[in-house]
Structure formats: structure tokens, C-alpha cells
Amino acid sequence: MKRVFRERGEEGGQALQHALGALEALAGPTLLLDERGRVSAVGPEARGLLPREVGAGQRLHEIFVGAADELHALLRSQREGMLSLRSRGEREALRPFRVRATPRTAEGRALGWTVHLSSCAATEDRREERFHGMWTQDPRMRRLFRIVEKAAKTQATVLLRGESGTGKERVACALHALSPRAHGPFRAINCAALAPTLLESELFGHVRGAFTGAVRDSPGHFRLAQGGTLFLDEVAEMPPELQAKMLRVLETHTIIPVGGREPVSVDVRIISATHRALRREVEQGRFRADLMYRLRVVPIFLPALRERPGDILPLAEQFLAEFNAQGGRQVKRIAPRARRQMEEYPWPGNVRELRNAMEYAHVMGERETLTEADLPPEFNEQARPVRLPLSPASVTTPASEVEAHSCSSRASRAPPREVAPGETIEVSLDEIRRALALARGRRAHAAELLGISRVTLWRRLKEAEEDGTA
Ligand SMILES: Nc1ncnc2c1ncn2[C@@H]1O[C@H](COP(=O)(O)OP(=O)(O)OP(=O)(O)O)[C@@H](O)[C@H]1O
């Protein structure tokens, strides 16, 4: 038993071992975590699934792909999530698990979590699929594609929900292309991009003289999409008065152009998308419940890229192959450290951001291997506190924001400062020279001393070279 079961802390003992064995008989492979999210016990079944070195004291982010904060958020949410075991070699495929945590408490005191694991069948999980310009090997995405195929054949409205860059517009196009309306037009309109009055006339059209500048009749998107599909992107941003009109359109299949009187029949299928939880918008009074029910006959949720970490590297390699095919530089592989950074990065802009990051790396890098230095600056600068041990006076962050920081000996040499995501820092050439002198010319070390990425250091030196100040 000792070999297959490890435990830690006062919670342990024979009783706990038996209890965990019994729990596994009911609930399957189980891990116990303490209140700080460190492993306190691994059940025998879980041990059979996890690498041998997983044991007491290890933190969740040392076992699974993802930043510590995100994994803790998953524990706290008590929702089911997909996690992948941290890969140990460049070639090792990420092994996905379905994970659900329940908190353990005693007399109101938090003891930690019980984490149930279920391994996803290898044959199901590794299958890759291309679907209308999208690629995935994630089972949830593949299930989503099947739902899209079914929904496409009907007239039902579809509401797509997902973060920016997850592929909502692609899915909307697929719904149209697979539908009996494929021969008709597909039109898309972004409800967040236009002022309310303009949005109404863009959607329903207007008659000549309806407002200043309306010099001729305009058909509007509904009529232009006649016999086809209209994609309402960012539908949650639609202003309330327009929501009422949209509801009427969905009920009567007619529109009234701005400045017009007569209803005009329209035969259009509506697909909408939002990055917001529409239900919450309804609860908060910002969106009409009746319209939500009309729009979401088939709701489809697109998972964020970080929730399907097995897709990150293969997609990155496909994007690189695409850029290689355009000629010029050839990137043949991604270095292990860059792979790790990419797996751990939260990708707030999802697949769009991944594609852009690969384009950036393709442009910036110089070798056949893409290294972490080729990745965009946010990989280094947003993820961690920036330390400026040299001459803090030249940094744009106001001195009042300098905070004490408990950490490494290097940081203790000078006051470190936090730089908020998106905030820019400026490092003078003088500082770079001093850092390079301190680092005996080693750029990576100099960049680390300055708290900037190697790409930023390289770029700053290049700019200085170009304007002759180097
Ligand atoms: N699974 C995927 N495989 C390959 N490319 C993808 C995938 N998902 C999205 N993309 C690409 O990512 C980019 C963004 O996709 P899309 O515009 O459909 O996202 P979106 O969710 O509609 O974004 P937004 O809400 O910001 O409009 C596009 O270039 C698209 O081709």
C-alpha cells in the first residue's frame, strides 16, 4: 500500500488510506489536496493514472498545465474542467483528464479539496479534425462540430458564446455553409461597433429622407441577407430599444425600415454571438429575457484555448507551417522552453492571438528553432512583476507605486516595482549598457536584471543602432 499511496500531514494515517480507497471505489481516481492546493494524498487508482513522481507536497501547477491562479480558480469554481498533464519531453503528447474538485471542511475550517480525475479515452482524445477552417483534437470541440452539423439543417436560431478569438464567426459561417440556405447570402454585423441609430438603419434599412444624409433608400442587412443567414456579432451590446424591435422581427418575420411605415417580409435565419453570459445580462436588466429565449434556441459554447491546452502547440505548428509556406524564413521546430511558456500562457485572445504570436515569432526570430526570446513581449512582461534594479528614475511608473516585494536576493538589491498588464516600461540605453556590463555582455542575463524580455532588449539595441546612439 505504501508504494501506491502517499500521504502527508496530520490528516494522514491508516484511517485516511482506507477512507480514500473506499472513496475511489465509489468515485474513481482521487487526489487529496491541502488548503494551499498541494497534494496531501494520492489514491491507488489515481496513482495508476499519474506519473510516478507525482506525490505529497507537489502543487497542482507542477502536475498539470496551467498557471497556479487558474488552477486554483478551477478548484474554487467546483466546475468540471479539462487539464493536461505537464509534458516532460518535446515529443510527449499532453494527456488530458477531466477534473472536478469538491472542498473538504471540518467544523467550518477549510481542509483542502478532494479532486476526482477521469482519464479521457486515448483513441477519442487524440483524433484530430478539420472543420470549416478550424482544427482541433479536443473532444469538446469535436462534439461542438457535431452540434453545428445538426443545428445547421434546421431553421433554429443559434447563440454562440465564447471569448474573443475562439472561432465564433467561423462557426457561424459553418452553420450557414451546411444549411439549406448555403446558396443564399451570409451577412455579418457587429452590434458593438455602431451607434444605436446607425445600427437600426444598418439592420432594417432606411427610406430616403429618414434622417439627414439619407439621400436614397438603403435596404439594410436584413433585406440583403434575404434567403440566407444574418450573423449578429456581440448581440449583448444591442441597445434596449433595438432589442424590442428585433423581438418583433423574430416574431413577425417582417422589418420596418427607418422612416418607413410598411412592414417588409424577410426570410432570414439569425445566428448571434456574444462573449458575455446573456443570462447574467438578463438578470441585470440589460437584455430582454424574451429576446434571449428567441435567440438561443440552440446555445453553443466555444471553449477558450486555455481550456483545451492540447490544441495550443499543434495549432501553433500549423500556423508556423502556413508562414513558412509564404517563403522566407523557415521555422522547423519550437524549443522546449518556448513550448512550456506557450502551454502556460492564458491566451486571452485565444486562437487569433496564437496565430498573431506565431506571425510575430516568425518575423522576429532568426533561427530554425523558435525560442522563448522570439515570442511577443507579453509572454515575459505581463506575466511577472518587472524588477528594475538599476536606475528606477527613468521608468514611467510613478515612484509612489513602488512597493516592497519579498523575494529573491537580486530583487533585494533595489526596490522592485510591479508593472500592470499592458503598461509600457521604458528602459534607457544607459540602463541597458549598465545591465550588459553587470551581466558581462550576456543579453539574457541583462534582460533579466532589467526585468524586460530579451526581445525588448534586442529591439531597444536595434533601435539605438539604427538611430546611431548605440
Ligand atoms: N480551431 C481553430 N482552428 C484554426 N483557426 C481558428 C480556430 N478557431 C479560430 N481560428 C482563427 O482565429 C481567428 C479568430 O476567429 P473568429 O473571428 O471566428 O473568432 P471570434 O470568436 O468570432 O472572435 P471575435 O469575438 O473577436 O470576433 C480567425 O483567423 C480564425 O480563422
UniProtKB/TrEMBL annotation:
Keywords: ATP-binding, DNA-binding, Nucleotide-binding, Transcription, Transcription regulation
Name of one Pfam family that matches: HTH_8
Coiled coil start-end: none
InterPro entries attached to this UniProt entry: AAA+_ATPase, AAA_lid_NorR, Homeodomain-like_sf, HTH_Fis, P-loop_NTPase, Sigma_54_int, Sigma_54_int_dom_ATP-bd_1, Sigma_54_int_dom_ATP-bd_2
Region (Disordered): 391-419
CDD domains membership: AAA
Skewed-composition ranges (Low complexity): 408-419
Extent of the signal sequence: none
Gene Ontology MF term list: ATP binding; sequence-specific DNA binding
UniProt keyword Metal-binding present: no
PANTHER family in alphabetical order: TRANSCRIPTIONAL REGULATORY PROTEIN
Protein name: ATPase AAA
